[in-house]
Specification:
- The complex is a heterodimer of chains A (89) and B (206).
- Chain A is 10% helix and 34% strand.
- By secondary structure, chain A is mainly beta.
- In chain A, β4 and β5 form a beta hairpin.
- Chain B has a single domain, classed as Probable tRNA modification gtpase trme, domain 1 (Gyrase A, domain 2).
- Chain B is built from 3 helices and 13 strands; from the N terminus they run βββββββββαβββαβα.
- In chain B, the strands form 3 sheets. In chain B, strands 10-11-12-9-3-13 form a 6-stranded mixed beta sheet.
- Chain B is globular, with a radius of gyration of 16 Å.
- Classes of the chains: A mainly beta (89), B mainly beta (206).
- At the A-B interface, loops of A face β10 of B.
Chain lengths: 89, 206
Amino acid sequence: MALTITCPICGKRNGYEFRFGGEEKGPRPAAHGLNPETWCDYVHNNNCVAGVQKEWWSHRDGCGSWFTIFRNTLTNLEADEPEERYEQV
Amino acid sequence: MENIKRVSPVVFKARPVKTEIRDNWAVTLEYDAEGPGPYLIDLSHRTRWDVQDGNLDEITPWEVAIPETPGKSIMEKGFLINRMNRTQASVWHLTGEQPDAPDGPAYTETTDATMFVALIGRKTYAIAEKLTSLDLANPAQKTPFLLQGPIAHVPCQVVTLAQSGEHCDILFTCSRGYAQSMVGAILEAGEEFGLRPAGEAAFSKI
């Protein structure tokens, strides 16, 4: 297990101390005008990026805090925030 | 309520030679053949509180200010106060007479929900290294300091009270249900270093 995660309170720790909380998907859709398709898409559909993505993690065995990090899903290593997260089309 | 009996979750396979009843706990002050150390000491009878509030900086348990930075601890007036995160701190009463329970919704007493032990004496750093990957003797940290993480795979709050060379005096708590397994794992890890159970009197010496 090479994954180490940097907790904002406890610092760099073994990945086994943490619980995965899923991709960061941005703010919850507004309740006004929300239809089932949009909600289903927000809850269930993931981007599954092959590369660096922003994720939620909880320090389950430590301070218990929830926070986001960037992780390279190809190497399973914590990564720096990419300068350009989205390519301009 | 005069006949209640409070029972520590920690039981050592050693013969107590000096005990006393304190606040309905049977406290062992000394065990037979404690040896020169290192020692594992049960302090589960020592009162502990969890403090939670959105404005933690405005709360001063027993007129002691809670450290501002998570991971920092302060020892004052017999209390060890550990800042856990933005809204939470733990308070451990270590020395002196039993204090009055604090007022206010921020406090929750956790004494009976957790176990509390001390690992002190020589070679304790080597014992701790067999049990956890936490850096309990980080020279960059000023003692006392708090780490939150696993010991023997059990989530714990760990405070390093003092550190020098091969030894570090540490205190830690975890959920009560893990107590016997934890004590077994710690004593087994410390067997090669002469780790023995000791009574509260050994802790009072430091």
